[in-house]
Model the fold of this input.
Amino acid sequence: MLIIDCHGHYTTAPAAHQKFREQQLAWLEDPALPTPRPAQISDDAIRESIETNQLRLQQARGADLTLFSPRASAMGHHQGNEAVSSAWARACNDLIKRVVDLYPENFVGVCQLPQSPGVPVAHSVGELERCVRELGFVGCNLNPDPSGGHWNSPPLIDRHWYPFYEKMVELDVPAMVHVSASCNANFHATGAHYINADTTAFMQFIEGDLFRDFPTLRFIIPHGGGAVPYHWGRYRGLADMLKRPPLATHLMRNVYFDTCVYHQPGIDLLARVIDLDNILFGSEMLGAVRGVDPQTGQYFDDTKRYIDALPLVAADRRRIYELNARRVYPRLDALLRARGL
Amino acid sequence: MLIIDCHGHYTTAPAAHQKFREQQLAWLEDPALPTPRPAQISDDAIRESIETNQLRLQQARGADLTLFSPRASAMGHHQGNEAVSSAWARACNDLIKRVVDLYPENFVGVCQLPQSPGVPVAHSVGELERCVRELGFVGCNLNPDPSGGHWNSPPLIDRHWYPFYEKMVELDVPAMVHVSASCNANFHATGAHYINADTTAFMQFIEGDLFRDFPTLRFIIPHGGGAVPYHWGRYRGLADMLKRPPLATHLMRNVYFDTCVYHQPGIDLLARVIDLDNILFGSEMLGAVRGVDPQTGQYFDDTKRYIDALPLVAADRRRIYELNARRVYPRLDALLRARGL
Done:
């Protein structure tokens, strides 16, 4: 059995990369400054940032492979404009590609998109295509709220998003629904904005008929699906009140939850309520929550421990750890098969 | 043991009441229209609306008493202006008072506030005081987002809210944190906006030091605390990362969750994770979700069944059903004691 972590971020990129971002934002304020260019980063700097962090923890915790994307909170789609977002996304994705090239057995790329408030998401199609076709990435992170907490884009079931979905279907890649930082003081990024976005996206999917239009479109809703599994009765009841089909057929052939839920009772609920075929192992490492749980003496985000503690037969555990990810990310499966895995 | 439902709404008010609201909104568009006045509603109309709905279900399901407030989704703080919100809140609260006078053993009043976007919440102090001192209400519903989904008010830990909190403390009444309808297409009201607001409020309380400033201030976060119990590990970990005290002392002496979680696994998680002293029985009846769960053959919002199915000793069950509510709502306790209960 392979253990595939579907949710990892390069939160530890070398400082020069973040400096490029700061130069970008400074340049926006003062266009007389020189046009910033992506940082020159050595392989050694990348190795150090990975080997002391994500790779070390991946190995210490017993995972085999991480679907690796740029730091979500730093996507910052609400900052700057389309050109700035585009250059930043490209630099972030290129850096992921370098990590993947250095550690091809441990990391597979998932891309950031050059979204920008008020800009059609269709403009992100090019970067998705580049990342998938040229860089070999297997998925993307799609931000349902590029405004960073003002929620002024159309819902995910709106036709606004369809050109992007068409490309996802054509490339056969799923999207993780993932917001970035919050610039709204009401929403703490990882404590409210992330979880709210997960809950919001799921309810939007209930309201619409997106998967009638795109039967093969697939989304991963991270952070254990936000509030959804805990309120599964509410969502089943709301689907009924809204005259939608049962959730199992209306959206659960297309929507998946990861396991970024940082305590045993939450994971127990997830596995009790949600069909195991819809659960993908993930850790969000590193990480929204980096500390040690004083109740267990273990890291909060060592989610593998919670899965291992579930009373599952081996075949079921393998669905969560490996088989669901290979089904939801067919390009990952192809890549693994090419390696004889 | 008394069974106290801390979360009931007058969602079935006679049509004339809603017509007054429509006249209000029409008058806003065309001030040449006559100034609308609250509807004349007969006792019989109120009796019918209650006896066929909330009272019938309260009795059928075996509860004794409901903390009863105006329909939350109809508070509509985002519509109109301060004067309109004020007249509407007053009419809604007066109607609750009439229900309470007709069925004093079955309903106790909780008030709507005349909030309005951009208007200091201090302006709601008068209506709170009227409802508590003159009408005998025991709590209020406080809307953290009077904009209806644009979230442009300061967070609940901001000093903006302090004058209102001072009055709550003086009157010794708690607030349920409860948004109204959503005018943001991203947020389905009962499926996303409500749950997001619950999660958001809790994270705001973690970020601040509100209960150091107001040690006796109390909030009920409805809908089982939004996403919070499911992500309890995340919140414990975030409090630690933010250098806050442990949740138990930082806010769980002041924050309570109701049981409006519409399936057994959700209630099981709630009772497993959250101290039983912080859980108040509630049904949200009637009702965000009005249908029958095909998996159980019972109504989704018959939350008493889920509590009854918890493996609790009688003393613990009584905390959830009665004692916590009497502690969190001292004016309810006083009222019951005066009746020898």
Remarks:
- The longest helix of chain A spans residues 82-102.
- Residues 91 and 320 of chain A are 32 Å apart (CA to CA).
- Chain A touches chain B through 58 residues (CB under 8 Å).
